[in-house]
Specification:
The structure holds two protein chains of two kinds. By secondary structure, chain A is α+β, with helices and mostly antiparallel strands. Chain A is built from twelve helices and 13 strands. Chain A has a domain of 121 residues. The chains are: A alpha+beta, B alpha+beta.
Chain lengths: 467, 135
Amino acid sequence: MVIVVLAGIAISIFSMHSYVSNRARQVLGLLDGLAQGDAALKGLLKARSQFQDSRPAKTSYSTQLKMKIDPYEVEIYIEERVSERTRWIGGRHSGQYRLLDSLHFLSQVCEGKVCWVAAAEEVFSPEPLAMGVSYLAFEEGFPTTTTKPVRSLSHLTSLPPGEWKSLVPENCVDLRARPCRLSLLENLRVRNRTAREREFRFGSLLKHFRKTPHTFPSPLEEAQVFSLMKSLDKQRTMELPELYWMAGTYERLMNFSAPGNARPEDFSVRSPQLVAANQESEQEILRRWFEVNSGGTPPKAHQETYFYNDTHALRHLARESKWDAALYSKVQEFPMEMFLDRGLALYGIRYVARCATLNPKTIQDFLALEKDFAQSQRFFRKPDCEFEADLKIEKVVKGIRVQESPMIYIADKPWISLASLWSLFAKLGGRPSGFFPDSLDKKQPDPISDEDSNNKTTGMVLIPSYP
Amino acid sequence: MTSLQWFRHSMKVVGTLDKDTQLLRLPRVVHHELSAAREILIPTSADKDPVEHFRHQLVFRDSTGDLSMLFLDPKNRLVQYSHSRSQFRDILRQVAEFKVWRSSTNRLEYELVRQSKQGPESIFGTFIIPLLKSP
């Protein structure tokens, strides 16, 4: 018995000792990992700068570099994807641009058999507008057009040893295999997308915690924690699926209404900017794109999660998203299904509602009114109204059809990208998709909203839309 | 008789060791929860004297962007709340006190106090948040 007890004590002491030793090793391992992660990033950035200085003339290729950053062996895999389609971009430096180019970097740093991985993706975009609207407009106001196209390094992710294997299929054992690298990059994108979704979903909560020192009592009931977090998280807009990236413009949109004394015809979309394409040679455009000191570097706060899903907010302007699948099967055709028709007109909708509970002041009110009427008159109808509830909508137009314009302007300020706006309206109205007709009568400006003694409400809202 | 007394005494010693081991395991459990943390929101880094300005709750954002809160509930349980899932999870029991402070931008220190028959027992831990790198 005594022997058994003594053995138990010995085992316990030995276990504790082993645990402490293991923990010490874990800590040392962590510190080493951080140092080697730095090496991976250094290698990656070094390769990037080399790449920038000597960009080959090819349109799409991949290459590998090996270097020694003592004491580590660094392998860099770089793939360039150059889209073959072009589109017209207006603005101060208007011209014909390629849709989207990107460079994928993958760096593997090995010390013996232990390897750290860092990945990055650099995207060249002709349109700083989109990311301004998507990510910064809410806090920083209207986006401004930079003088040069944007190049941004994104998805700079450092993975500790072995972690990359959890992000790729089981049959991927070596990053030298291209499918494995592409799979890893894609999974990192997904991870970053999730991060950014939540960044915006919990936007107001994060803002509170970052800017306001909070002191909560202890202990806390679970119910207290729940209500506390909910109360701080006011940003309900983020709950709209697929629209989190539009957070900034959503706020503006909801507050947008015509000035009280303005007539509807005072609002117009800026005149079309129909400038002949191909004014500049392709070489000139490329030179501008790849100029090192181009404007529009991403703000630090968003560098790690700067692009949604596939690289750039331009993606969101595509009405078709099939090129996700095509991306890795037909790289040469990438992005094969991107659709960037920017045709737009601003429409006026004149409505006459009878016995309506809502008296629309904004576009959101109007869409709610229409939805209520279409779905159920129970919410639409005033309970004490003696007339039959009714809603008549007449399309009248004000605005100039825009063939090519990336923006709606309010006064002199660019407001929102167009496809995004339409998508937003559709969502706000509870409609998955839809369009307004393009053949419209002449304008009939009316007062914004008025209610007479017969319980008739008339008004007019302005809705930008694709023709 | 003597052997029974010895056995009882031995079991008591083993029990004490077990509790001590549990205490030593506390940081490991907490570190496991913090392993995905990428940004600490509470305590803030603005506190001038972090040890004096400790907090009883730890709020952090993980690598996927989810927000979590570690806090002590009235039943002396250290609980984790995940905001994205609106879910609570018990991390540790019999915790009398939980204090956390930041000693530098990405270094977190904490004290866990467990109430035992010998009185309060404290264990301190430190954790480095692997911040995301930027070029």
